[in-house]
Amino acid sequence: MTTSDPIPRKGLANRFWERKPLSKMTPKEWEALCDGCGKCCLNKLEDAETGQVELTCVACRLLDDSTCHCTQYDIRHQFVPECIVMSPSNIDDHAYWMPQTCAYRLLWEGKPLFNWHPLISGDPNSVHQAGVSIQHRTVSEFEVDEDDWEDYIIEEPA
Ligand code: SF4
Ligand code: SF4
């Protein structure tokens, strides 16, 4: 079933990401790169000494587990001030903790996008059908004490 895509992707040049560096993308192109997997909205645990990042299935309070989208995207900082706004100017600082399949990280690493990316498939559900999103796999951070997040570490769906 194809549902409407909350991320505007119409009117963009064909495979623009293969011809433009991240630093030259327009805001619309930048936003369209998000595949909607929701994995960046899961809480992570970072080892202060080794820098190793572990993913948990404990989701940000604003994440919708069914759609994998933020329920208050435009005003999210009112509720989650620490939510990071990724941009061409700060991706160098954040790519290391982004999911392995995240389009921003892939392009930053010089890798191609996967065929299930909605920009290629034309279907926002293809990220879920490919099994790489966190759809129906999360628990809310309201339900798990932060001291227990270690018990909720998962392998990244990829
Ligand atoms: S991990 Fe990357 S591609 Fe997935 S939802 Fe977050 S920003 Fe978008
Ligand atoms: S505030 Fe929204 S975009 Fe930010 S981590 Fe939470 S669900 Fe994701």
- Pairing-aware structural class of the strands and helices? alpha+beta
Radius of gyration: 16 Å
Q: Share of helix among residues?
A: 10-25%
What's the shape? globular
Ligand types? iron/sulfur cluster
Q: Uncertain regions: pLDDT < 50 for 5+ in a row?
A: none
- Number of domain units: 1
Number of discrete helical segments:
5
Strand content: 5-15%
Largest sheet: 4 strands, mixed
Family: Belongs to the UPF0260 family.
InterPro entries: Puta_zinc/iron-chelating_dom, UCP006173
Organism: Shimia thalassica
Protein name: UPF0260 protein PH7735_00520
Task: Give a brief rundown of this model.
With about 160 residues, this protein is an alpha+beta fold.
